[in-house]
Design goal:
Elements: H1 3-25, E1 40-44, H2 87-98, H3 100-103, H4 116-119, E2 124-128, E3 132-137, E4 143-148, E5 162-168, E6 171-177, E7 197-206, E8 209-217, E9 226-234, H5 248-272
Parallel strand pairs: 4-5
Antiparallel strand pairs: 1-2, 1-9, 2-3, 3-4, 5-6, 6-7, 7-8, 8-9
């Protein structure tokens, strides 16, 4: 086969691939500006919040509850099936896993960070504007603003990071930096440092499905970047709306109970005198 024939075949294949991708997203709603309309309530349907990696079922923290609270099995969402921890970070992850029923930031109703907020077992809502995109999450009232273009540097580190967005064709790309080091990726103790850098990609797959990818980089914790991927599903119920899960009051005893118990003991001792 001649070089010219090979180039023609390659061009045909590329044209077909582009047409196929366009056909896949042709049913996706669009804004007046022609961009995919991401407005709506979305949710992941997997076990990534329990463990990003493939895992079997396991008992929960309270054996008397039986199957309630037990860990469901999952196939994992990490491309390649490996999180490339540095040696010291491997030890920290193992320690986190041992202490997950007391140390996981989710237990304390802390904001979940990125990308964990996306695949927690709660929905989130996207409100899409021309220059900003608001993403608000049911869990803990977490929210972040995606600033399109070049908004400059973040004023400070935070739980949800500093999100800067851009469009690459029909894909919304969000570059997230300026995190603190207080969040985990899942209930299995997978974690990061304050050097975390996440690049998210939201790509229409069909009318009510997005392909979600997040490339994770953190030179203090991992020896190379790694990626997770999963579908996100739009809620299409007639009455679909976001309900807030204000969990702070449920976490107070976990966080401050030991202090209240000490005060209570002191009061009892004072009453007995």
């Amino acid at each position: 086969m001649s070089i010219g024939s090979s180039m023609k075949i390659l061009a045909l294949v590329m044209t077909w691939a582009a047409a196929f991708a366009s056909a896949q997203t042709s049913g996706f709603p669009r804004t007046a500006a022609g961009k995919p309309d991401l407005n709506g309530i979305w949710q992941a349907n997997n076990t990534a919040n329990w463990d990003l990696l493939a895992h079997g079922s396991a008992p929960g923290p309270v054996s008397s509850l039986g199957a309630v609270g037990a860990v469901p099995p999952g196939e994992g969402v990490v491309d390649g099936g490996v999180i490339p921890y540095l040696p010291a970070a491997v030890a920290q992850q193992k320690e986190n896993l041992k202490r997950r029923w007391t140390d996981d930031p989710e237990l304390k109703c802390y904001m979940p960070g990125v990308p964990r907020a996306t695949y927690m077992p709660y929905p989130f809502q996207i409100v899409q504007g021309a220059n900003t995109i608001l993403i608000t999450y049911a869990f803990a009232g977490a929210v972040r603003t995606v600033r399109m273009g070049n908004p400059g540097k973040s004023p400070s580190d935070s739980w949800m990071g500093w999100s800067v967005g851009r469009w690459e064709g029909d894909t919304l790309v969000i570059d997230v930096t300026s995190f603190n080091d207080q969040t985990w990726f899942d209930r299995a103790g997978n974690f990061h440092s304050d050097a975390l850098h996440v690049v998210e990609r939201y790509t229409p797959r069909s009318a009510n499905v997005l392909n979600y990818e997040a490339t994770i980089e953190d030179p203090k914790t991992f020896f190379r970047p790694w990626k997770i991927s999963m579908p996100l599903y739009r809620h299409v119920e007639a009455n679909a709306h976001l309900l807030e899960f204000q969990c702070i009051e449920y976490a107070e005893d976990l966080i401050y109970g030991h202090l209240r118990h000490k005060d209570g003991d002191s009061n009892k001792q004072g009453e007995s005198k």
